[in-house]
Amino acid sequence: VSALSQLGIFDEVRVLPVYRHMFADKRKSTQGSFQDRIEMCRLSFKDLPNVTVSDQEEKCFHWVTKRRNLTEPLQTAKLRVGTANLLEMLIENEPNTDFTMAMGSDTFKDLVDQKWKRADDIINLLCGRIVVFARKFNEPKSNMSCQDIKNLSGLCDDKQEDDDIYILNTYIEKVNQKFRDDVKNSYISLHKKDKNPGTNNRSNERKK
Q1: Following CA atoms 61, 67, 69, 73 in sequence, which dihedral angle do they give, to the nearest 10 degrees?
Q2: From the CA atom positions of the chain, what is the Rg in Å?
């Protein structure tokens, strides 16, 4: 979160604590109420610029409940709301915002291995805008090029030529100047230049 905030690339960095985990064992092991976790995150990130701790996962649960007309407690108890649902809600509510998702390399591998519910939908809803941080305990980053990831995610056809997947090959340990420089250089080396640089000053600029 610190790294993303200090890069100056994104208009806003949102932290979304999980409201109700997809897996029962994870739900049982989660400590603290959702509101407690929201408040802990707010305390943790309160000094970081452009960082917002959001309850949008909870809002998404109720959004899906309403759309499916689920009114009975037994119906909502069985409801599983995933990342694709969250993205659909965000895009519907904020059509002028380009959302990017940040995750660790191990989580990304699960995504492209189809271990996530509606994995392809998630990638398509993001238009390939994914930031991947290499985990210190997980070294396959050196064997996974940006094109490899595009091939794995199905974003290698002609229509997706301009979609970006950002792979930041830097360990997330502490935010110092060298770390920020490494992350920024990794981003610049993989980010395709805007075909029309002047568009960033438009009054209807899309948020990132």
Answers
A1: 0
A2: 18
